[in-house]
Design goal:
- By secondary structure, the protein is of the alpha/beta class.
- It has a domain at about 5-210.
- The chain is about 40% helix and about 15% strand.
- It has helices at about 5-15, 30-40, 80-100, 140-160, 180-185, 195-205, 225-240, 265-285, 315-320; strands at about 20-25, 45-50, 105, 130, 170, 190, 215, 250-255, 290-295, 305, 310.
- Strands 1-2-3-5 form a 4-stranded parallel beta sheet, covered by helices on one side.
- Helix 1 (about 5-15) packs parallel to helix 2, helix 3 (about 80-100) runs parallel beside helix 4 (about 140-160) and helix 8 (about 265-285) runs parallel beside helix 9.
- The longest helix is centred in the middle third of the chain and has 23 residues, at about 140-160.
Amino acid sequence: MKSEEQAQLLEQLSSAGVASVRMTLHEPFSAVIDAMRLAQLSRLDVVLDISLNIRSYFATDTRRRHQGKVDRSYPLSTLDVALFEKAFGPFWQELERRGIHVQALQVGNEINWSFNGDLRSGMHGEGQVYDSLRDLPNAAAFERGLDNYVAVVRFVHAARDASSVNRSATILSAGLARIRPDFARKTGADALDAGLTYRLLEQRGLSRHIDAAAIHYYPAVSATPEDRRRHLQAALAECGIPNARQACWITEWGISNSSQACPSDDNARARLVRETRAALREAADHGELAASYYFEWSGRSARSIWRCGGLTEAGRLAIAPLGARP
């Protein structure tokens, strides 16, 4: 996306009432720095998703996993922590030099599913959700990947603590995926249970290097309201890392509306958004939730909320502050 288009999009977000956006780190890093500067000019806070699928973090002979329809990802077990430090360190220093503020740093994304090439993909209806390492294919490599992950988080933590501009930035764990068995089969990609993944990370000392854990929550449209509430409570429980300085961050939630017709008929989705917001607000009131981010804004995605030249009813509800009652 060209700089002018980025500026227009970010101003559109700000004008609609969005206060904070999530951006993903990618190469070239200079383009991300420019986008973050534009966000700051548009009065938007930024949660930076530090992607762990960047070429420069890996030896030249490392290959991505290419199977399947989901993400083509590098195995986390092959990430070279020294190369990560060599790439990320100067990027972070440049943010500091330019005075670009970061609200939070999410280190990695869905490392218990398709964004981690140590997990299988491309199995044509045979993906599974594992709740035990004993049964997980390639378990030894997956555990080596978790060792690398905690080493990366440790470096990010040290860089944040040495900052002047961004000393108060919140460090978040990778937003973990909560994959349902039917979705694993549909995508043909394996996942490890989010709660188990956090327990394995905590055994490696993760909580010493983060301020809060992050998780993703996508309400099942076909479920009952009671089941959806139960699933949210389970997600928040999995996200409750001991001794964390902040409550859980939900860095992705969203509800689909597959119709792309204009004008947009968003009434059914708006009802589910109202229900979800009420549950999120209750969790925040009880100190279980620090922040939530709707995913995603625009485009052809069924979850997009900017359609037909404006914000849909579900979108207006989704982006309102949790304390508000739209």
